[in-house]
Amino acid sequence: MSSQDIPEENLPAAQETTLDKVTGADEKHPFADPGLPPHEHRIQDIDERAAKRSERTVALLFTVSMLATIGFIASFVAFPADKSIYVFPIGHISALNFSLGLTLGVALFAIGAGAVHWARTLMSDVEVADERHPIEASPEVKSKVLDDFRQGAKESALGRRKLIRNTMLGALTLVPLSGVVLLRDLGPLPETKLRHTAWRRGKLLVNMNTNQPMRPSDVAVGSLTFAKPEGLEEHDEEFQNEIAKAALMLVRLQPDDIKDKKELEWSHEGIVAYSKICTHVGCPISLYEQQTHHVLCPCHQSTFDLSDGARVIFGPAGHALPQLRIGVNADGYLEALGDFEEPVGPAFWERG
C-alpha cells in the first residue's frame, strides 16, 4: 500500500496538527499543561448529616481501639502462660499469645482505620499544586508552612468536632500502655520463687546417678556425690527449673576437719550438703580437692572451702554456698531437715 492510499487524517503531519489543536502545544511548549480536573465535592462537604455519620464512625473506631488495648492488658492477667486453646484452622496455640496478638492488632488497626477514614471523609481534599523550591528553607517558606499547618488544623475541624478529638486522644493515650505491659515479657515476676527450692523437711536425698535414696554408708570419705530431692523426676515439665535451684552436692569429711560450728551441727557423721549452684553466675560446681576440701567452679574459678562453711576463698563469687541441714530417718536414709535458709545461686536485688 502506498502513501497515496492512506487516509489523509491518519498521516503523521495530520496527526500532529490535530494534537496541536487539542492540547494547545506549540514549538516553545511541546507539552501543554493539562491542568487539574474540576474539584468534585464529597457528600460530607455538602451534607452535615453525612459528616456526622463519618464523625461517629471515626469515634467508634477509636473507641474500639481503646477497648482492645484494655483487653490486651487484661489478657496478661486472665491467661496463664502455659494455657493452650484450639483455634480453627490453626490448631492448638497459646491462649496468652493469641489474645495478645489479637487485641493489639485490633487496637492498632482501629487507630489506623479511624485516621484514614477521618482524612478521606472529613479533612480537606482540595489538591494544591506547588512549585519546586530550593532545599534550604527561606523565611517565606517557613511562614508559609506554618500558615498551611494552621489552615490544615482549621480544616480538620479538630477543635469543633470534639467527639473525634476526645476519642482519638483516648486511643493514643491507651495504646502506649501495651508497650509498658509488654515489659512483663522480660520474664515472669519472681515473687518468692528464687527464695525457695523443692527441698522440704523429710525429703529423701536421691542419688543423681542411680536415682535411689541414699544412706550415710553410700557417701565415702573424700568423695563428691550429687543428689536431688525425692519426687523430682527428669521427665517432669518443671524439672530443669527445679533442679537449677535444688541441685545438691554431698561430701563426707572427718568431723574433726570441720571448722565451722554451724556446718558441723547441720551435717550428719561428717556428711555435709551444699548447693551445687555457684553464687557467681549460677554455674554447676563439679571439681573437688580431697586434701584441701575445696570445690572449684569451672566457669570462673570461684573456690569455696567446704570445711569452713563453704566460704569464698578465691574468685568472683559474692557469698558462700548455702548449706542444707540433713539427718537420717527411721529407715536409715538421708533426708533434708528443711529448705535452704537463704536463696541459692547468684545474688539478686530482692535478697535485701
From TrEMBL:
Its main location: membrane. The chain crosses the membrane at residues 58-79, 85-113. Pfam families: QcrA_N, Rieske. This is Cytochrome bc1 complex Rieske iron-sulfur subunit. Residues 245-335 form the Rieske domain. It is a multi-pass membrane protein. Residues 1-40 are annotated as: Disordered. CDD domains: Rieske. GO terms for molecular function: 2 iron, 2 sulfur cluster binding; metal ion binding; monooxygenase activity; oxidoreductase activity, acting on paired donors, with incorporation or reduction of molecular oxygen. It is found in: Cell membrane. Belongs to the Rieske iron-sulfur protein family. Keywords: 2Fe-2S, Cell membrane, Disulfide bond, Electron transport, Iron, Iron-sulfur, Membrane, Metal-binding, Oxidoreductase, Respiratory chain, Transmembrane, Transmembrane helix, Transport. Iron-sulfur subunit of the cytochrome bc1 complex, an essential component of the respiratory electron transport chain required for ATP synthesis. The bc1 complex catalyzes the oxidation of menaquinol and the reduction of cytochrome c in the respiratory chain. The bc1 complex operates through a Q-cycle mechanism that couples electron transfer to generation of the proton gradient that drives ATP synthesis. The cytochrome bc1 complex is composed of a cytochrome b (QcrB), the Rieske iron-sulfur protein (QcrA) and a diheme cytochrome c (QcrC) subunit. One of its GO terms (cellular component) is plasma membrane. Coiled coil: none annotated. InterPro entries: QcrA_N, Rieske_2Fe-2S, Rieske_2Fe-2S_sf, Rieske_Fe-S_prot.
